[in-house]
Write a structure and sequence with these properties.
alpha+beta, 6-stranded mixed sheet, 5-stranded mixed sheet
């Protein structure tokens, strides 16, 4: 029986390679994000291939034939800066893009400028001198919204205030369905006045960045202090706006009307810049899950699941208790909006039920341990869990976390596979000699033949485990079935080789 199994092992190994290869992912679906997230994710937008309307079809709401050749307010705006940088219009569209790691994105709500010959370009932002917020004039600007200042420079007038940093462009008005002007302007902020009001509102509170700086919070949740004059990042000797990950504190951004009711958990106050807004606020650190233990974070909103293109709404119920092997209630779970974790490096997505290198153990204190990655342990806010859609084909859930980069193999693991392949070549030669020269076959040589074949296949499987790239496979995509199959075959062939070695010893003794 062992002889028959050993002789058919090559066919089994071929099937193994096919099975493991089936686990290699070929997904290339772009991730959908809003334009406000582009800078935080480092996405380079390809404006030349944006999907945006050109208005050249007969049924176009605003046809190019009716596009105004000059600014509708005449000489008053002749020297005004064009938001597009040329005589054209802007429209909202979708644009492809890539981040530095090569991940493809589809960026939504992008303001795309068009020339009248259908060349696409980004809409230029107004340059604010000092701290200011770029705003869009909410109505259609008319003659009463433009005037001249004391230096005879054109200014934009909004609610009685004059703004010299502004630009204009044309757009197809969504309601009026005609070509109209649009204006963006820089609304400057008085930092000293805001800090004065903030000290009156929260006396005795620590300042997150000091009295001469502001706290910037990116769309991804990253926090940094900026000089209020130059908007350059500054380093603080002591920061009050970082909640302790190991004690599972949940960071909250409080606005002005919430400050007085949060004295118990208030860490610090500051003038805050967040998503083109400047406001008085503070940082509060509250216990995760309301203090319930253990506490696990979901990457998604409640009632959604992750698929190849991002998150979507679902009616499927995800049983976290069965996945973690712990009795949990809703009090032990927190839901997120963006899947952001407190990483100082890029996040990694892991699929424990699909990839054997992603195996994870969830501890009763809420930590996650990854045995195949050097027993790396992640705390609250360093990882999150997301249910997977069925079509993802990678199990029931995903873990997204701050894991270290894949370590470089040791010197031993780098040259071991070549030694193993050298042995495979010698063993193959031994098998061929016995098969090509039948007179050499006797009872002992048959035992030797089976021993050589078993050892050959054992070394071949071990090489596939250590260097799958030699067989056109990838360690990052070994699914759990392939991984277990490789392990069992390796055990079997080594046991078979030792068995034949024992038989050879008995034969020599007799």
């Amino acid at each position: 029986l062992v002889t028959m199994v050993a002789k058919s092992s090559l066919d089994l190994f071929t099937l193994l390679v096919i099975t493991a290869g089936a686990g290699v992912s070929s997904d290339s679906h772009p991730v959908y994000v809003d334009f406000s997230e582009v800078s935080g994710l480092g996405i380079a937008v390809d404006f030349a291939h944006c999907d945006s309307e050109f208005y050249d079809t007969p049924d176009a709401v605003c046809h190019l034939d009716t596009f105004p050749q000059n600014n509708t307010l005449g000489s008053l705006l002749e020297s005004t800066v064009q938001c597009c940088g040329f005589d054209g219009y802007f429209v909202f569209g979708e644009c492809p893009g890539k981040d530095p790691a090569g991940q493809e994105y589809m960026v939504m709500n992008v303001q795309v400028c068009h020339t009248l010959t259908n060349q696409r370009a980004p809409k230029l932002a107004v340059t604010c001198s000092g701290l200011g917020i770029v705003r869009t004039f909410e109505d259609v600007p008319g003659e009463g919204n433009f005037g001249l200042d004391s230096r005879n420079n054109t200014v934009l007038i909004v609610n009685g205030s004059e703004f010299s940093d502004f630009c204009v462009s044309h757009e197809c008005h969504p309601d009026l369905e005609v070509w109209t002007l649009s204006a963006d302007y820089c609304d400057h902020v008085n930092i000293s006045a805001l800090y004065s009001d903030l000290r009156d509102l929260t006396p005795g509170s620590d300042l997150c960045c000091g009295a001469e700086a502001v706290l910037e919070i990116s769309s991804a949740g990253a926090r940094s202090c900026l000089d209020s004059g130059t908007l350059q990042r500054i380093e603080m000797e002591e920061t009050f706006f970082n909640c302790d990950l190991t004690t599972k504190e949940h960071l909250s951004i409080l606005e002005e009307d919430e400050l007085e009711d949060s004295n118990a958990t208030l860490k610090c106050v500051s003038v805050i810049i967040q998503e083109e807004r400047v406001f008085m606020g503070g940082i509060s650190c509250k216990p995760a899950c309301g203090g319930a233990e253990p506490c696990f974070r979901f990457c998604n909103k409640k009632g959604s699941e992750f698929v190849n293109a991002g998150y979507r709404v679902t009616d499927r119920v995800f049983n976290l208790s069965s996945v973690l092997g712990q009795p949990l209630t809703d009090a032990n779970m927190e839901y997120s909006l963006s899947g952001h974790t407190g990483c100082e490096r890029d996040q990694q997505q892991m699929f424990p039920e699909y990839n054997c290198m992603h195996q994870v153990m969830f501890l009763t204190n809420g930590d996650a341990v990854f045995p195949e990655m050097g027993n790396t342990s992640l705390h609250y806010n360093q990882f999150c869990i997301a249910p997977l859609g069925v079509e993802a084909g990678k199990g029931d859930y995903m873990v997204q976390g701050c894991l270290p980069d894949t370590p470089v193999p040791s010197v031993k693991l780098r040259f071991y596979p070549y030694l193993l392949l050298s042995s495979v070549g010698c063993l193959t030669t031994t098998v061929l000699v016995y098969l090509l020269f039948p007179p050499l076959m006797n009872h002992y040589s048959k035992i030797m033949l089976n021993f050589s074949l078993s050892l050959l296949l054992a070394f071949l499987v071990l090489t596939a485990i250590q260097r799958p790239d030699m067989f056109g496979l990838s360690t990052t995509e070994y699914n759990t079935v392939s991984c277990r199959l490789l392990g069992h075959l390796n055990q079997f062939f080594f046991l078979a080789a030792f068995t034949w070695m024992t038989i050879m010893s008995m034969e020599n003794m007799n």
